Amino acid sequence: MQSATHKASVSKKSLWGGRIISAVMVLFLLFDSGMKVMRLAPAMEATTRLGYPARLVVAVGIAELVCVVLYVIPRFDSGCDPADGLSGRSNRYPGAR
User: Fold this and answer.
1) Residue 47 burial by CB count (10 A; 0-12/13-18/19+): exposed, middle or buried?
2) What is the pLDDT along the chain (97 residues), one digit of tens a residue?
3) What is the pTM of this model?
4) Cα separation of 87 and 31, whole Å?
C-alpha cells in the first residue's frame, strides 16, 4: 500500500487518459440524470422500456445525480487508518502515542 508521501509514478499519458475517460463518463451521467429529473420524453420511454415504473424515473435520476456528485468529489486523507477502529489509536505500534 502506498503512503501519502510516496505516490506511485504514473505517466502523463495514462493520467490524461484516465481524466478524459472520467470526464466523458461524468458528462454522460449528468446528461442522463438531468433528462430523468426533468422528465423528458426520451428518458421516460427508455427507462420504462427497461422495466422501471414511470413514477420512479425522477427518483432514479436523483440517485444517479447523487452518485455522480460523490464520484466527482476528490478523496482526502483524514489521517485515520480504518484498522485503528473507532478509538483512532492503533494497537499495532504500542510504543507510539
Assistant:
1) buried
2) 555 555 668 888 998 999 999 999 999 999 999 999 999 999 999 999 999 999 999 999 999 999 999 999 887 766 665 655 555 555 555 555 5
3) 0.66
4) 43
Residue with cell 466527482: 72
Whole-angstrom distance, CA of residue 27 vs CA of residue 34: 10
Q: Coil, strand or helix: which one is 44?
A: helix
Angle between helices 41-49 and 12-37 (to 10 degrees): 100
Residue showing cell 424515473: 57
Burial of 64 (0-12, 13-18, 19+ CB in 10 A): middle
Contacts (Cβ under 8 Å, ≥6 apart) of 88: 80
Angstrom distance (rounded) from CA 18 to CA 37: 28
